[in-house]
Specification:
The chain is an alpha/beta fold. The protein is built from 8 helices and 9 strands.
């Protein structure tokens, strides 16, 4: 992503980055929303997960995921190199710790496209840095329509994802914010508004004390 945070701005208050989690049932729109946020905001970086699942058409190792085998994944877990990990649809996913912590220290936000299991683990390790957003579809019929329209998965996989959606949606109370994705454009705007609000929280503006001290001294 961009490097606007590294550009010295004497009027800017130094802040700590946040971990923005977007979760939803498959097909509810979180991936499209994530892409729009990443493309429009240079202060947001994507958390690239490791996974044991096979690559889909168009996916690139290191950009979309780090594709590893099960033994390599288990080694990362044993070394405590993952902030979270979960098994989803017979495959394993996890978030590498080091690049996330480095980004937060630089004042960059890190976007996570993970499920409720991973979100719970992140909350245990980094509650103060976490902003949880759950994306709901406008209806079950629309969710199924979107899954079929993707044409990436065979019919039996779509059926499994629909069966899983009910359980996934039951976890919405564990999130800070909930958005119903009736319109992709509106949902993107709502996530941007959440991001703006959360960046302004006092605890994240770690340079605020220094800034106010300067104001009081006439700087």
């Amino acid at each position: 992503m961009g490097n606007s945070m590294e550009t010295e701005d004497p009027f800017r208050i130094r802040r700590r980055g946040l971990m923005l989690v977007l979760s939803s049932p498959s097909g509810a729109g979180k991936t499209s929303i994530s892409r729009a946020i990443l493309e429009s905001d240079p202060e947001v970086e994507l958390s690239v997960s490791v996974t044991t699942r096979p690559k889909r058409p168009g996916e690139v190792h290191g950009r979309d995921y780090y594709f590893v085998d099960k033994s390599a994944f288990d080694l990362m877990v044993n070394r405590d190199e993952l902030l979270e990990s979960a098994k989803v649809f017979d495959h394993y996913y996890g978030t590498p710790r080091e690049p996330v912590e480095a980004a937060l220290d630089r004042g960059h936000d890190v976007l996570f496209d993970i499920d409720w299991q991973g979100t719970q683990q992140l909350a245990e390790k980094a509650e103060d840095d976490l902003v949880r957003v759950f994306i709901l579809p406008p209806s079950t019929a629309e969710l199924e329509k979107r899954l079929k329209k993707r044409a990436q998965d065979p019919a039996e996989v779509v059926a499994r994802r629909m069966a899983k959606a009910s359980d996934e949606m039951s976890h919405y109370p564990e999130y800070d914010w909930v958005i119903v994705n009736r319109s992709l454009e509106d949902a993107i705007a709502q996530v941007r508004a959440i991001l703006t609000s959360e960046r302004l929280r006092r605890r994240r503006q770690i340079g605020l004390s220094e800034f106010v001290k300067g104001l009081r001294s006439g700087v």
